[in-house]
Prior knowledge:
The protein is of the alpha/beta class. It has helices at 21-36, 79-89, 91-103, 119-127, 139-148, 152-155, 190-199, 214-228, 238-241, 257-262, 282-295, 321-325, 337-341, 355-364, 376-387, 399-410, 413-432, 438-451, and strands at residues 12-16, 40-46, 60-64, 108-114, 131-135, 207-210, 232-234, 269-273, 299-302, 329-332, 346-351, 368-370, 391-393. Helix 5 packs across helix 15 (376-387).
Amino acid sequence: MEIQGVGGRRRRIILVPFPVQGHITPMLQLGSILHARGFSITVAHTEYNAPHPSTHPEFMFHALSDGLGAGYDMSFDKILGAIYIMNERCKVPLVQYVENQTACGEEIACIIHDNIMFFVDAVATRLKIPGIVLATFSASYFQALTSIIPRFDAIFPYQDLMLEEPLPDLHPLRYKDGPFQPTQDNDIPEPIRDFFRITNDIRSAVACICNSIDYLEHSSLSKLQTHYKVPFFPIGPFHKLASSNSPTNLQEEDTSCLPWLDSQAPLSVLYVSAGSVAVVEKHAVVETAWGLINSGRPFLWVVRPGSVHGVQWTEFLPEGFQELVGDRGLVVKWAPQRRVLSHPAVGAFMTHCGWNSTLESICAGVPMICQPVFSDQLVNARYLSDVWKVGLEMEVIDRDVVERSVRMMMKGEEGKDMRKRVVDLKQKVESCVEKDGCSYKALNELVEFISSLHHKD
Ligand code: UDP
């Protein structure tokens, strides 16, 4: 279907992603989904972590001068500052770009922005163009935030002995699953509280799109809809609904792991990755390394350069690591994750439980060992282990626990049961994107909704 505007041209949607991998990927996938439904797509992106236009020749790309530049060091302690800089600096360039496009006769249907790029709301309001928020994370995390933010003072700081206690009104979450990274005294500093208040306020947005599935997160989605009072469109998993599977990775994939996987027995390999942002303590990865060595199982381990505190890449690996594991272990900097997860040799995923990784693993029918690091990962891990029961919670990271968890998942009864459940869940989730499935219907509603939007006068 062509969504035509004045003069028979397709109506254009402008997408503004937040420039980290886990947010860029779903935004580009959303672009592919909406392009296939007849809209023209422009990605208005920062210079920092700019997507590669050649991977999506069907889109227009426009770089916004972000005040950071391409080589900015977005390490964890600098990310908050960077977010405010981008939100300040990108405002004027986006206004100018949209005004130019409109002057050239483009009919802009709406601007869809990542909730972290909150400046877009002011731009959309000023230009009288409808704004829509994209939530790239789980609805359960989003809902937990909306519930906790007004209760910051009642919940924080909490005592250590409450870590295992349920978070009031947030079943199944415990204090320790709270979607923040509290300080050592279990508090949330004021600047972080402010950040969550700002990014969770959808302001004048007319709707919210979620990379979620009503079947999976019905309760959280309906609470969000009641709270925000705008339509929510759960049209996930995006990667299953996007007709083109154009690459979205910012980093170069090491595909040498694919022939290595070909040489491994079915369901024998543990895939290990902590995603694109998390930085972990050296102690934790050393223990993980020993757990993998002692488990005796084949593994493919993504160690992103800079992902371990105080270490450039794999210098933390125990002496003699390669001799100890031989051909049974492969370490790479960045893997083609979706191809890895769908490889018949992969039997389980030790994951940080980022939302994209969670959905990709469910859709590949691969059970998980949960090693969350911070933020939404803690909530996702709890849902994986306690609600969907397709993930094994790893309470502490020491070599014995890692070894036991790997053995249990790869060979034990618990692992077998979990694999059965995840294969069942995969089928259910995949049926959601088929004709008449809940995500498919939500997408039709979204297309109709966007088509009916008009500039606000
Ligand atoms: N990813 C990948 N190769 C890797 C590690 C990660 O392609 O070696 C991709 C993964 O498939 C996912 C994204 O990077 O789509 C990570 O997003 P997620 O939400 O799981 O975690 P984040 O990086 O945001 O913490």
